[in-house]
Amino acid sequence: MKLALSTDHTGLKLLGQLQQYLESQGHECVNYGPKGFQPDDDYPDFIFPAAQAVASDECEAGIIMGGSGQGEAMAANRVVGVRCAVYYGPARPVGAVDAEGQPARDEFEVLRLSREHNSANMLSLAARFLNQSEIEKAVKIWLETQFGGVERHQRRIDKLDRN
């Protein structure tokens, strides 16, 4: 799979390690920066090009990072056609996870739901909350999960992608 990668200064080291991991798994990665550590850089400068690559189908999906991952996801989601989810770490839902009342499979359910229900095409990771091992596990689960194709979910995605 061809993946767009990007971060701000906070995730620079982790993103480099993630790129090595992804390439060892057979993925092609396009790293949109930054090229070096600059503590006063502005994440939109690096996130917008990655998001545009995903929206234009130049890349099949994108993985981005920041301290919390929130600002980066907000930037990515401003690009029409991008549906970027944020991931902080393992969490267990307290109730049913879908309309049929199905329970969570494990503490990574939120990653799966972002793909199965929302067809997320970008994932924003919280570099200050995750270590490399957690990032690799999360990304593996996220990439292996496919959109479920349920009509009500597709209808909602279509509405998101129109605006």
SSE order and pairing:
Layout: E1 2-7, H1 12-24, E2 28-31, H2 44-55, E3 61-66, H3 70-76, E4 84-87, H4 109-116, E5 122-126, H5 132-144, H6 151-162
Parallel strand pairs: 1-2, 1-3, 3-5, 4-5
Description:
With 163 residues, this protein is an alpha/beta fold. The protein has one domain: Sugar-phosphate isomerase, RpiB/LacA/LacB (Ribose 5-phosphate Isomerase B, Chain: A), CATH 3.40.1400.10. 40% of the residues lie in helices and 15% in strands. It has helices spanning 12-24, 44-55, 70-76, 109-116, 132-144, 151-162; strands at 2-7, 28-31, 61-66, 84-87, 122-126. A five-stranded parallel sheet has the order 2-1-3-5-4, sandwiched between helices. Helix 2 (44-55) crosses helix 3 (70-76). The chain is globular and about 45 Å long. It starts with a strand and ends with a helix. The model has no long low-confidence stretch (mean pLDDT 91).
